Amino acid sequence: MANLGDKEYFKGIGEIKFEGKDSDNPLAFKYYNPEQVVAGKTMREHFKFSIAYWHTFCGQGGDPFGPGTQNFEWDKASDPIQAAKDKADAAFEFISKMGFDYFCFHDYDLIQEASTFAESEKRLATITDYIKEKKAASGVKLLWGTANCFSNPRYMNGAATNPDFNVLSRAGGQVKLALDATMALDGENYVFWGGREGYMSLLNTDMGRELDHMGQFLTMARDYARAQGFKGNFFIEPKPMEPMKHQYDFDSATAIGFLKEYGLEKDFKINIEVNHATLAQHTFQHEIATAAKAGMLGSLDANRGDYQNGWDTDQFPNNIQETTEAMLVFLKAGGLQGGGVNFDAKIRRNSTDMEDVFLAHIGGADTFARALLTADKIITSSAYDDLRTKRYSSFDAGKGKDFEAGKLSLEDLYKVAQENGELELKSGKQELFENIINQYI
């Protein structure tokens, strides 16, 4: 297994392989078989599974009530350059052992931000060159990059929407460097998550001006990257709130409307996160359907929230019912446009063994794979598709077909209503649909 570093960080764990659902080996896939063809594509092609650099290699288990519990070997070097190289060695060892093809990063996941902008630029260039070598040696690819324009105190009032032009400019400089790193690493996409693009109070906020600034900022970023030859997609990742009271990319529908208002819809698509969907009082499948309807189903961040907690817990996906319903929408939409399934999830604070990181990702991949297999069986072997089609059969001929074709006026609908008189109720058969899901799971 290719590894530029001499040290093995995940000792005693070899390559994770598919062994099937009857296997008792916890360090093996039970459902995720990368080369198995489902609905015309291999699982590898459907999912393009990606490791989130920030949670998997940077998150140490800290919370508001205590420091981290995970003491990573790659965090021990005092020199930030060496620490970043050690982290990269560990990251590419882990990704290669998992058998996944991709990773994702924020700029300052890769290396610690320096005390000056100029020094940060040098550090980012140094680690980008090192990761180029790691990619070449391992074959691992970059699904997307992004900039962390939300953690540093300078962004407490936002980045692209900050009321101070100098802060907005600093964010622009940071995004340029993150785009440069993404392009240097042959990243297939670039993501914008507006973590603090919103407001804490409308009393001190000019929302219209801030939205215009964000539209202009994204336009400038797009134009810069395209001028450098970047051919990939740009993604918006919606989230309704947290850390801000209200964030401008509230959900998929809001983000799509924003992109269309500012003429960005041809270059941008939506990166949907499960936990963000539920925070917006939606389901994962609702957000997929919304993005797919607009032709903007770009990428997915796979995780889940805790049903008893109203915040972003970023747990690994394990709800087969929820994920199966999402995969039904996923398959009917024809899959993702450019992106993949990124495990934006973290092990729990009391999970402190190195193998726990493997177990979490294995479980997440198996959940998606099992859901995909189940959804495909439902579509191809059950009455599910026919039942849905029949619900709309009145639009497939006659006046209903004319309505969809735009051939009727409101007066025409009035005449149809007069002719029909009172109507019989038609059941939506929701319980039958639910039973079909349960039957095939």
UniProtKB/TrEMBL annotation:
<dbReference type="InterPro" id="IPR036237">
    <property type="entry name" value="Xyl_isomerase-like_sf"/>
</dbReference>
<keyword id="KW-0460">Magnesium</keyword>
<feature type="binding site">
    <location>
        <position position="273"/>
    </location>
    <ligand>
        <name>Mg(2+) 1</name>
    </ligand>
</feature>
<comment type="subunit">
    <text>Homotetramer.</text>
</comment>
<feature type="binding site">
    <location>
        <position position="314"/>
    </location>
    <ligand>
        <name>Mg(2+) 2</name>
    </ligand>
</feature>
<keyword id="KW-0413">Isomerase</keyword>
<keyword id="KW-0963">Cytoplasm</keyword>
<protein>
    <recommendedName>
        <fullName>Xylose isomerase</fullName>
        <ecNumber>5.3.1.5</ecNumber>
    </recommendedName>
</protein>
<dbReference type="GO" id="GO:0009045">
    <property type="term" value="F:xylose isomerase activity"/>
</dbReference>
<comment type="similarity">
    <text>Belongs to the xylose isomerase family.</text>
</comment>
<dbReference type="GO" id="GO:0005737">
    <property type="term" value="C:cytoplasm"/>
</dbReference>
<keyword id="KW-0119">Carbohydrate metabolism</keyword>
<feature type="binding site">
    <location>
        <position position="237"/>
    </location>
    <ligand>
        <name>Mg(2+) 1</name>
    </ligand>
</feature>
<feature type="active site">
    <location>
        <position position="109"/>
    </location>
</feature>
<feature type="binding site">
    <location>
        <position position="344"/>
    </location>
    <ligand>
        <name>Mg(2+) 1</name>
    </ligand>
</feature>
<dbReference type="InterPro" id="IPR001998">
    <property type="entry name" value="Xylose_isomerase"/>
</dbReference>
<keyword id="KW-0479">Metal-binding</keyword>
<dbReference type="GO" id="GO:0042732">
    <property type="term" value="P:D-xylose metabolic process"/>
</dbReference>
<feature type="binding site">
    <location>
        <position position="312"/>
    </location>
    <ligand>
        <name>Mg(2+) 2</name>
    </ligand>
</feature>
<feature type="binding site">
    <location>
        <position position="301"/>
    </location>
    <ligand>
        <name>Mg(2+) 1</name>
    </ligand>
</feature>
<dbReference type="InterPro" id="IPR013452">
    <property type="entry name" value="Xylose_isom_bac"/>
</dbReference>
<dbReference type="GO" id="GO:0000287">
    <property type="term" value="F:magnesium ion binding"/>
</dbReference>
<feature type="active site">
    <location>
        <position position="106"/>
    </location>
</feature>
<feature type="binding site">
    <location>
        <position position="276"/>
    </location>
    <ligand>
        <name>Mg(2+) 2</name>
    </ligand>
</feature>
<keyword id="KW-0859">Xylose metabolism</keyword>
<feature type="binding site">
    <location>
        <position position="273"/>
    </location>
    <ligand>
        <name>Mg(2+) 2</name>
    </ligand>
</feature>
